[in-house]
Input
Amino acid sequence: MATQTSTKVIGGGDQGFATTRLDALLGWARKYSLFNYPFVTACCGMEFMAVSSPRYDFARFGAEAPRFSPRQSDLLWVVGTISQRQAPILKRIYEQMMEPRWVMAFGTCASCGGFYDNYTTVPGIDKIIPCDVYVPGCPPRPEAVFDGLLLIQDKIASGVRKPSVVKPRMDPATDLVQLNTKKKEKES
Amino acid sequence: MSKLALEKLQAKLGPKVLETHSHLGDDTALVSADAWHEAAKLLRDDPALDFDLFVDLCAVDYPKREPRFEVVLHVYSTTKHHRIRLKTRVGDEEGEGAELDTITNVWVGSNWFERETFDMMGIIFKGHPDLRRILMYPEFEGYPLRKDYPAQKTQPLVPYRTEEEAGLGLEKVAPFGGDEGMPFGRKWFEKGAGAFGELGDVRGTQEATGPRKDG
Output
């Protein structure tokens, strides 16, 4: 179970039924119907809007419905810097969420405080609440956020709760520029 | 630009104007603390000056000076199009007795700025209608922008999770170094590995940002 990353049908046949394990089925159902609670405090919120709006659109991954009540949501997006003054609010929001619940730290500030090494900023939300996936970046690109979302989905399916970090990737924009220049060379 | 204002201040307040400075339209008057309110009122009410727009109010900490704090006010005139900086000095070396008359009854806009200055520097504005913290939480002790506030000191409202409670190390996992985003930061100076420490300039190297392993 620990290494399983997607739902497997254990047995089945041409009789029109399939068998699987109940927790695997539940995980499969949960991973494609994430209800989000966006806890947006800072500039990463702009990137969150980009991810949720049509150009990138995380609805494609089933994480469509934002719930502005923590009681109805199962994925908490912590988007932006968490100040010491915000910390009790964040903790209370987390405690109000129903089990099972997952937390994503969106951006460097939520993950580790970023460059705010001072009297007013919490150095990472994991000092206050458990966190499942960290997405580094200031702000992270939408692609990195999708990597984080897919990591969460893998974790939901497999039941593994060990925190993990989205690996930084090359900026795809550089490839786009190269493609454009190559195209121009062909034309000329 | 507003040398006129400096002259009028000197004419009205005499020796209470301790210093003036005027260079390329950048005019500053340093007045004694007991003349603070009077000077503000003069700047607003004199028809030739007519400083009707409050711009900024803040304080600066000079830890070895006496008086220790300098309170700085910027005002602008939307009719005469000139501006002036008015300063005063308060507080002894321990930061005690840093008290000043409020100017909320001269420019209403100074209300939140005085609260901020109180919050960050601990300067008490006498006669302020609602002098309480504006940025920090009420439980916060001390004044964070004073130079003697310890740079590493935090006052969490929620106790941090311990590593036993979390069941894992809370020191940052890769790719986050312990000082992610701050290779020039305080922690490195403490380790002697800062930009000018004995280990030399490590900014931008692998050591500075922590080893990058796949998480």
User: Anything to note?
Assistant: The domain at 3-126 of chain B is CATH 3.30.460.80 (Beta Polymerase; domain 2). Chain B touches chain A at residues 135-137, 144, 149, 151, 153-158, 160-161, 166, 168, 170, 172-176, 179-182, 185-187, 214-215 (CB under 8 Å).
